[in-house]
Amino acid sequence: MQYPNIVEFEVYGDYALFSDPIMRIGGEKCTYQIPTYEALKGIISSVFWKPTFIWYIDAVRIMNPIRTEVKGIRPIHYHDNANDLAFYTYLKDCRYRVRAHFEWNENRPELAADRNENKHHNIAKRMIAKGGRRDIFLGTRECQGYVVPCAFDDTDDFGFYHAPPTGIPDEINFGLMYHGITYADEAFSDETQGKMTARFWYPVMKKGVITFLRPEDCPVTKTLRDMDIKPFGVGPDNFSGLKEFGEVC
To answer: Across the chain, which distance is largest between two alpha carbons, in Å?
Structure first.
């Protein structure tokens, strides 16, 4: 399905670390081989985000060969300022093309006055051209990323896996993998209302392209805890259903 507010961009960086947050309690971190839906959603949200809408990641194209590098890290203890010793496994020389679109957040009826699709779509494209409103990270803060506009299906450069060397299959299955988190203000069903829910799925890369499932279509979910929707107060310094909201933001 094609959406009228699609944006396409390329994000790249020297290193990336995309891992399951459930496994990040402590110890040594190891990256997934591909970026997660939630990480890419965080990137486009850093470029431009409003509580009026929700970003949906449609697809990602893996442009460079998947390579990893292990680094010795000295993380700080949670309970004091002492250092620990650990080895983190990062992705190296990362470059991805992303296609995304936004839809109105029906859990925020108080922001209905700001539902101007043309305005938000044009702002998003301008922010991509400028590299984003906030810093871009590839999974973790130490992995700085950079965003530029692109054509997702640029015929001059389909990436390494579109026609891979002999021995690399056209289709690669990555098994069960973390997809993202559904927060209370992005709930899409009775089961996710008032909850924080983790989602999992089975990604398959075909000629370098991974087409993401929508959050509500993920086959495996796990409720993490109860969660309330953050209320927006009434007043000029808060998000509210003010008539002027769409004009000032």
So the answer is: 62
Q: Are the beta carbons of 52 and 103 closer than 8 angstroms?
A: no
Q: Are 139 and 16 in contact (CB under 8 A)?
A: yes
pLDDT digit string (tens) for 98-118? 999 999 999 999 899 999 999
Q: Kindly report the number of other CB atoms within 10 A of residue 125's CB atom.
A: 17
> Mean pLDDT over residues 88-107, rounded?
96
Question: Taking residues 38-42, what's their average pLDDT?
Answer: 96
Alpha-carbon distance of 137 to 45, in angstroms, equals 11
> What pLDDT, on a 0 to 100 scale, did the predictor assign at position 239?
46
99, 8 Cβ separation under 8 angstroms: yes
| pLDDT tens profile 180-190 | 999 999 999 99
Q: Are the C-beta atoms of residues 147 and 43 closer than 8 Å to each other?
A: yes
SS3 for the chain is CCCCCCEEEEEEEEEECCCCHHHCCCCCCECCCCCCHHHHHHHHHHHCCCCCEEEEEEEEEECCCCCEEEEEECCECCCCCCECCEEEEEEEEEEEEEEEEEEECCCCHHHHHHCCHHHHHHHHHHHHHCCCCCCEECCCCCCEEEEEECCCCCCCCCCCCCCCCCCCCCEEECCCEEEEEECHHHCCCCCCCCEEEEEEECCEEECCEEECCCHHHCCEEEEEEECCCCCCCCCCCCCCCCCCHHHHC
Owner of token pair 């009228």: 4
Quote the tokens at residue 136: 């871009």
Measuring CA to CA, how many Å separate 223 from each of 183, 187, 192, 200?
10, 12, 8, 12
The answer, as to whether pTM is greater than 0.85, is yes
